[in-house]
Amino acid sequence: MTRPTPLSGFPEWLPGQRVAEQQVLDRLRRTFELYGFASLETRAVEPLDQLLRKGETSKEVYTLRRLQAGEGEDELALGLHFDLTVPFARYVLENAGKLQFPFRRYQIQKVWRGEKPQAGRYREFLQADIDIVDRDTLPPHYEAEIPLVIGDALRSLPIPPVKIMVNNRKLCEGFYRGLGLEDPEEILRIVDKLDKIGPNAVAQMIVSAGGTEAQAKACLALAEIRAGDASFADAVRALGVEHPLLDEGVAELAAVVETAREHSPGLVEATLKIARGLDYYTGTVYETELVGFEQYGSVCSGGRYDNLASAGKDVFPGVGISIGVSRLLGLLFDAGELSVSRPTPTAVLVALWSEQERAASNRIAANLRARGIATEVAPVPAKLGKQIRYAERRGIPYVWFPASASAEGGDQVKDIRSGEQVAASSEGWIPPAEDMGPRLQ
Amino acid sequence: MTRPTPLSGFPEWLPGQRVAEQQVLDRLRRTFELYGFASLETRAVEPLDQLLRKGETSKEVYTLRRLQAGEGEDELALGLHFDLTVPFARYVLENAGKLQFPFRRYQIQKVWRGEKPQAGRYREFLQADIDIVDRDTLPPHYEAEIPLVIGDALRSLPIPPVKIMVNNRKLCEGFYRGLGLEDPEEILRIVDKLDKIGPNAVAQMIVSAGGTEAQAKACLALAEIRAGDASFADAVRALGVEHPLLDEGVAELAAVVETAREHSPGLVEATLKIARGLDYYTGTVYETELVGFEQYGSVCSGGRYDNLASAGKDVFPGVGISIGVSRLLGLLFDAGELSVSRPTPTAVLVALWSEQERAASNRIAANLRARGIATEVAPVPAKLGKQIRYAERRGIPYVWFPASASAEGGDQVKDIRSGEQVAASSEGWIPPAEDMGPRLQ
C-alpha cells in the first residue's frame, strides 16, 4: 500500500485538534442541556425525494448505492443529509405521537454536501443545531430565547466574541408590501446579495424585477438599519411605510433584541439587511459573526419556520439555529486562536523498572484511575531518561516512579515541567485540578 | 407531505433512549480516557479501492455519487466506511509523521453496511473502538491490556455482566501446523463455524479440505478447551502436538488470561474455539458475551493485527477491539434491561404567572443555570395545574414558583414527586445530586 493522501473537502483533525473539538462540543452540549434541550441523532440518510423537496439544494446531495445491488432490485433511493433541519422535521412528523410538545432538542452530527471544496467550505462537516418545535402554534418568545442559548454557548469558549445579527421576515415582507412591491420573496433574495454585489447592483435588480427607483431606495434604506436595542423601530417608522405585517415583525424583533439586551448587552443587534436565502423562514432570522473575523461570514445561522414539518392537518412550527462547528474550528485553528494544553488525556505515566515488574506498575495505574486520574504505564522498561521523554513528547505532566525492590524508599512522583519530585502514595495522591485533563486555550 | 415511516436497518432512538445512549457513551469515553486513549474521528468516506482491499466485505459497501456530477467528471470513487479499523489504519499511515507511537486512540462513530437488515443487524450503526498501534513492533503486553479497558468500560454500565473470550491465532496456527495440516487459515475458517454447524459438520469439512479423521478430532479437541486461568495450557499440551508457534501462542494467551485474572477475576476466559473470521488478525483475538444473552452473539470483538497498516518499509502493528454500541443498546432496550430516569436534562421548570412576568422567570432560570441546574421556563402562563402537568409528563422533578407581585412571600420550589414545597432562593438552592440530570438505570 502506498502512503495515502488527504481527500479534498473531507477534513480530519490531528489528535490535539480533535481534543479541542471535543471540549468545544462538551461545552456546547453543557449549555444546550442547561436550557433543557435533549440530545437527538437522526440517521445519516434520507429518502432522496425528501432531500430534494427544496429544489435549490438538489445539486449538493450525495446519493447512495449498494455496491452489490442487483440490476433488478428496486430499492428506495437514498441520499446523505445536507443539514440537520430537514431530518429533524421528518423525525418530528414520524414520532409526533411519542414526543412531548413543545419539544426542544439539540443535534450534533456530520452533514454532507457535494459542493466544490474551498477555504472554509467542506464536503463533510459537523453542525451543532438547536430547535424548538411546537404543535399548531409556537409562541414568539422562543425566537427571543435562541440567541440567549447561543450567546451562552459561544461565550463559554475561549474564542473571539460573537455578534448575533437578527432580522424578521414579517418585517421585511410587510415593508415591501407596504411599499407596493408584489413579490416580497424575490426582493428578499435580491437584498440577500447586498454584501456581495453592493447597493447599486441591488437597486438595479429591484428595478429589473418591476420596482421603481423610489421603491429600490426605500428597500436599501431599510437594509441599512442596525441597532443594539429597540430604537431600530423608530428608524423603520421614519421611512413612512405602513403594513400590519410590518408592525407585527417590528414588535417581534423588538422583543428579541430587548430580551437579549437584558441577558447579555452587546450580544444581539437588529441588522435589517440579514435575509437568509432559504425560503422556509417565516419570522426571526439569525446570522452570527466572530468579531475580528467578519470576512469569514456567518458561523451560526437559523430562523423561525412555520411550514417545514406538516402532514395532513398536523403542523409543527419551529425555530432553530445551527453552529457550523467544522467551519468555525477550521478558521480558529488556522488563525492560531484555539488550541489545547496537551493532545492526550493522560496525566500520569507510570515508569517501569523491568518487564517482570509490569504487574506492580499496573496496580499503581489502577489505583490512580480509581480516583479519576488518566494514567498510562510505560511501553517498555527503557532507561529512565527515555521514559521521561515519552511523557514529554506527549505533554503528560507527571511521571510516577514505583518503589523498586532493589532500591530504598517508597513511590515518588515527578512534575516533569518543574522537575519537582515528591514521595507519594498511589492510593492518595491527586494532581492539581488544572492538570487532570487537557484544557482549551 | 404524508407522515414518514421508519427506514428498515436505520435505527433512530426516541429521546429517552438517546439520553441512555449518550450516558453509555460518556462512561465508555471516561474509561477509555482513564487508560490514556485519545479521541479520534475519521471522515465517513474512503476511496472505494481501499474499502475493497478485503474481498470478503465488498458486498457490504455503500458507494457515493454526487447527484449532479457530470457524465464526463472523473471523480475518485468513494464509499462509506463499514468499520473503524480500516479508516484508522489509513489515518495512521497518512499522519504517521505527526503522531507519537505507540499511539492509542478511541473512536466512536457510525458505520454503514448494505446487508439485509434483521434483528440486531443494522445498515447504519454506532461502534466504539479502541486500538493501540506502534511503529515496527508492538509488545504483546498490549494484548493483555485491551480486556482490562473493556472490562472496566462495560462494568461501568448498569447492564448484565460480560465474559470476554480470548484465543490466539499463533496458538491455533502452530497447533494445526504441528498436526501436519498445511492450510491453517482454511482450518480456522472451518472451526469458526463450529457454533453454527456443530462438531460433526466441522470434522467433515476438515476431512474434505484434506485432513485425516485424527487431525479433525484433534482440531475439535483443541476447540473444546476453556479455562479462566493459565491451566488451559496444560489441556493443550495434553493433546501432544508440538510447534514453536504453538508455544509462542500459548505463552501470549497465558499472559492475557493471568493479567486479567489479577485485575478482574472471572472477566476473561481462554476459549479456544474463538476464531474471528477476518483474515487480518495475527495474535490474540477477542469476543464478548453478555451473560444471560449468549444467544445474541458477540457484542465486542477484535484482536491483534500486524499487516493492516503498512506503506513501503513502514509497518504499524496494532491491537484493538470494537463495541457494537447500537447492537448492544438495541438488545438491552428490547429486553427492558436499560433505561433512563427521565428523557430530558431539565431539573427545574420555572412557572410563569403572566406573559408580562416572563423576564422575571427568565432571571430565575438564569440564576439556576449559573449553578449548573438545567432549567426551562413554562411555555405559556397557563393554569398552575397545567404547568405542573407539563413538568410531570417530561419527568422534570421540580417546579419553581416565582414570588408574584400580587401575592405575599418569596419564591418557592416544589418537588412534584413528593409534593413537598419549600421557600427557596434561586441564588442558593440546589437539588440533590441524583436529581441534577437523567440517570442510567
Topology of helices and strands:
The structure is a homodimer of 441-residue chains.
Chain A: H1 15-34, E1 38-39, E2 45-47, H2 48-51, E3 62-66, E4 78-80, H3 85-95, E5 103-112, E6 124-133, H4 141-155, E7 162-168, H5 169-179, H6 184-191, H7 194-208, H8 213-223, E8 226-227, H9 232-237, H10 244-263, E9 268-271, E10 281-290, E11 300-305, E12 310-311, E13 314-315, E14 318-324, H11 325-334, E15 348-350, H12 358-370, E16 375-377, H13 384-394, E17 398-401, E18 412-415, E19 421-423
Parallel strand pairs in A: 1-5, 7-9, 15-16, 15-17
Antiparallel strand pairs in A: 2-4, 3-4, 5-6, 6-14, 7-10, 8-9, 10-11, 11-14, 12-13, 17-18, 18-19
Helix pairs in contact in A: 1-4, 4-10, 5-6, 5-8, 5-10, 7-8
Binding site for L-histidine (chains A, B): 83-85, 113, 127, 131, 276, 280-281
EC number (chains A, B): 6.1.1.21
GO cellular component, one term (chains A, B): cytoplasm
What does this structure look like?
With 441 residues, chain A is of the alpha+beta class. Chain A folds into 2 domains: 15-334, Bira Bifunctional Protein, Domain 2 (BirA Bifunctional Protein, domain 2, 2-Layer Sandwich); 348-435, 3-Layer(aba) Sandwich (Rossmann fold), CATH 3.40.50.800. The first copy, chain A, has helices at residues 15-34, 48-51, 85-95, 141-155, 169-179, 184-191, 194-208, 213-223, 232-237, 244-263, 325-334, 358-370, 384-394; strands at residues 38-39, 45-47, 62-66, 78-80, 103-112, 124-133, 162-168, 226-227, 268-271, 281-290, 300-305, 310-311, 314-315, 318-324, 348-350, 375-377, 398-401, 412-415, 421-423. In chain A, the strands form 4 sheets. Chain A has a 9-stranded mixed sheet. Chain A has a 5-stranded mixed sheet with strand order 16-15-17-18-19, with helices on both faces. In chain A, a hairpin with a 2-residue loop joins strand 12 (310-311) and strand 13 (314-315). In chain A, helix 5 packs across helix 6 (184-191). The longest helix of chain A is centred in the first third of the chain and has 20 residues, at 15-34. The first copy, chain A, is elongated and about 95 Å long. The mean pLDDT of chain A is 93. Strand 3 (62-66) of chain A pairs antiparallel with strand 3 (62-66) of chain B. Chains A, B: It holds the Pfam family HGTP_anticodon. Chains A, B: Its EC number is 6.1.1.21. Chains A, B: This is Histidine--tRNA ligase.
